[in-house]
Task: structure prediction
Amino acid sequence: MTSLLVGIDRSESSRRAVAFACRLADESGAALHIVHVIPWSPYSFNSPDENAHRSASKAQEIAAAEKQIIQPAVDVTAEFLVTPTTSVVHGSPADQLVSLATRHTATQIIVGRTGDSRLKQVLFGSTPVRLIQMSKTPVTVVP
Result:
């Protein structure tokens, strides 16, 4: 059985990526895993007080992401014969999507095109571009 991994954020292109992935999964019988990565770096500079509360903050961020980002994506899947699995993780979006694709033996990673400004893309890069550069799993970017 094949497996598809779709990475999402709050964007409209993510919603289209989920619908695209659902169509592929519905037609092929592939398993579908929906992921949201909360950007976070282990090298960020936090105060000792912030570090003391970091576990509770991460749990609150995950709960909010499940409600505000994952659930609307799962609602999109209701139009298809697909029962997705989901997860919310912290880290670098591209790094985490590549890692999760390996863990789920995904045959394809699907993401929406971000609406970042050209300046932001030049300075920081975009998740789709980093995925294409890093991933050994084929990547589809949905406009």
